[in-house]
Amino acid sequence: xxxEKASNVGFFEKQFKLKEHNTDVKTEILAGITTFMTMAYIxxxxxxxxxxxxxxxxxxxxxxxxxxxxxxxMMAFMANYPFALAPGMGLNAFFTYAVVFGMGxxxxxxxTAVFIEGIIFILLSFFNVxxxxxxxxxxxxxxxxxxxxxxxxxxxxFVNAGIVIAEGGTIVSxxxxxxxxxxxxxxxxxITGVLxxxxxxxxxxxxxxxxxxxxxxxxxxxxxxxxxLGIFSAPPSxxxxxxxxxxxxxxxxxxxxxxxxFLFVDVFDTVGTLIGVSSKAGMLDKDGQLPKVKQAxxxxxxxxxxxxxxxxxxxxxxVESAAGVAEGGRTGLTALTTGIMFALALVLSPLFxxxxxxxxxxxxxxxxxxxxSPIKEIDLDDFTEAIPAFLTIVMMPFAYSIAEGxxxxxxxxxxLKVLAGKSKDVSPIMYVLAVLFVAKTIFM
Length: 444
Description:
This protein is an all-alpha fold. The protein has one domain (17-443). Helices cover 66% and strands 2% of the residues. Strands 1-4 form a two-stranded antiparallel sheet. The protein has a two-stranded antiparallel sheet with strand order 2-3. Helix 5 packs across helix 6 (107-126). The longest helix is centred in the middle third of the chain and has 28 residues, at 253-280. The chain is globular, with a radius of gyration of 21 Å. It starts with a helix and ends with a helix.
């Protein structure tokens, strides 16, 4: 090993404590790239959605990539966890369709709400409020969250590939499996499954690459500009979207409602993702707590503030981080690698545009399988434990929301425990959260 290479390995070991986490540089980098590939769709989806409000598409693209890179680096160096962050799906939809189109506000108003939410998040992190919420959730529900996220992320994969669609008067239906994207995804599912069965290191990563290549002659994989040689592009300017806040309406009732909604969804999406992914990775201690959860939550909050300043909707921890964890990622080097990939996307967007949703779908579907294992440890004999766990699991994919799954689980847990005479099992924070959840449902 050359002295320079040894020096680099030494830096990574000192910074991320790789041996302590039973991992190495190669595994972590591969995991980070895999995570990026499964969530890179946000680079196209987020600008497309926010541009409907009148925001500059190119500016939002740059803001999306930069805010994701910053948040991932914060997670890497502050918390040393393999969790990746980017502007959240669902939160960007609320930004566009509820705040701007539904309530009739400007996108500058919505961006201001995201900024305020981020500041509140930082304060909540410093005062350990989010940490207290994380630690108050019972162990059975934490295990259920992991399983629910597994089903949710698998559903995302099926939808991204067009294998599952909404059609014909049914809630969901089977897509045309003989057409391009669904067929490619099924091929990729077989390839990745065989690689996993043969215990190939980096099976998900190599499955994505192989599926993308197979998709080229099928007409599914191709650069966004149609030019296989023109892989470089200058990043669009942020001038039209950065720091475009609207301070005149910050003390209105509408602003209060919007900020609270952003806050609510972001808190429980993030907490749910951290619980689910860290549970699967074996990072929770014997009491079901994540040792550096405060730093992880703070990285999420700082990412949201940075994203708002740059010109994008709320940044949050991604369930797709589970793909990197499944590849063996256990430290912040995984998150650092994902962040670097987002930074590279600023100048290599046509290259990353080659990877279709059908190529990353098999990885997401199989990660769903990996996330299912905690179901074996859930107490299914005590119905005050089993029913809330079940509702948590099924409502995540059915409501298409991690946050709503947690709401159903926590409220039912409190109600059943109290009515069954087991109120001593419920922590004070759980009572407070249950009341807040019910009040939100009734009044909002």
